[in-house]
């Protein structure tokens, strides 16, 4: 197994990896960045070998690094030992992870989704916060949901911040994306309940009659579901607010709905 040693910030591969913090570069290359040996190993266990594996001196003797390096090399990837300065620049953090992996993005076409393969699926319209999206992907994984469908203009699930928030679940959960029109046409064939959440709904989320597989449709953090999508739901429900707060964080509300539907 060949291992390169790179110490210069001007190295072409280092510059390419650093550029993956930019959405345009991720979209153009189809690649994304994942930080930490644990996440890299989870990716490999899910069948995703890194195309580039960078590691610092602190990780050189870790037994799991050898597994990651072998998987990367076997898939035709590049294994590179770098110094701490490069890791800091690549991660944009003063206390970087000792291992960084570059992976190929994977999106599941809507046509390839099999609704009855899981009791619950999640659709998110115009989600804006990468931390929210990453946390929802992680929650969907934990609950055994089938996947997450991004509707309209959503934040990039493969942003560095979003991938961090998934804690590795980005490699285990199906991710699809569609325009509002594509989603509405596809939804017509959904065999179970399509469930929306609205502050103005009159049905409590615990008392609704959910038909599996259920598709949970959540709106934007600020505006919630637009009328067009709320009208496409079989049932709209509300999560009651009993204190002074009049709303919940999107990832928290989605988590409540996932476990309500699958419970």
UniProtKB/TrEMBL annotation:
One of its GO terms (biological process) is RNA processing. SUPFAM superfamilies: alpha/beta knot (SSF75217), L30e-like (SSF55315). The keyword Ion transport does not apply. Keywords: Methyltransferase, Transferase. It comes from the Bacteria. The keyword Methyltransferase applies. GO terms for molecular function: RNA binding; RNA methyltransferase activity. GO terms for cellular component: cytoplasm. Residues 33-109 form the RNA 2-O ribose methyltransferase substrate binding domain. InterPro entries: Alpha/beta_knot_MTases, MRM3-like_sub_bind, Ribosomal_eL30-like_sf, rRNA_Methyltransferase, SpoU_MeTrfase, SpoU_subst-bd, tRNA_m1G_MTases_N. Belongs to the class IV-like SAM-binding methyltransferase superfamily. RNA methyltransferase TrmH family. This is RNA methyltransferase. It comes from Caulobacter zeae.
């Amino acid at each position: 197994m060949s291992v390169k040693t790179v110490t210069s910030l001007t190295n072409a591969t280092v510059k390419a990896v650093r550029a993956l913090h930019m959405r345009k570069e991720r979209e153009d290359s189809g690649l994304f960045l994942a930080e930490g040996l644990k996440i890299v190993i989870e990716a490999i266990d899910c069948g995703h070998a890194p195309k580039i594996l960078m590691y610092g001196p602190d990780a050189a003797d870790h037994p799991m690094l050898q597994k990651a390096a072998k998987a990367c090399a076997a898939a035709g990837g590049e294994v590179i030992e770098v110094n701490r300065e490069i890791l800091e620049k690549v991660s944009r953090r003063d206390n970087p992870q000792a291992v960084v992996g570059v992976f190929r993005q994977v999106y599941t076409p809507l046509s390839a989704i099999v609704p009855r393969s899981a009791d619950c699926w999640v659709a998110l319209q115009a989600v804006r916060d990468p931390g929210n999206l990453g946390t929802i992907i992680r929650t969907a994984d934990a609950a055994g949901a089938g996947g997450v469908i991004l509707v309209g203009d959503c934040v990039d699930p493969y942003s560095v911040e979003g991938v961090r928030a998934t804690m590795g679940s980005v490699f285990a959960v199906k991710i699809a994306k569609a325009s509002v029109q594509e989603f509405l046409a596809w939804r017509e064939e959904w065999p179970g309940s399509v469930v929306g959440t609205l502050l103005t709904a009159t049905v409590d989320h615990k008392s609704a009659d959910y038909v599996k597989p259920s598709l949970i449709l959540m709106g934007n953090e600020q505006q919630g579901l637009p009328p067009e999508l709320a009208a496409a739901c079989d049932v709209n429900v509300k999560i009651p607010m009993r204190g002074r707060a009049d709303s919940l964080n999107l990832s928290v509300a989605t988590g409540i709905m996932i476990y309500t539907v699958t419970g």
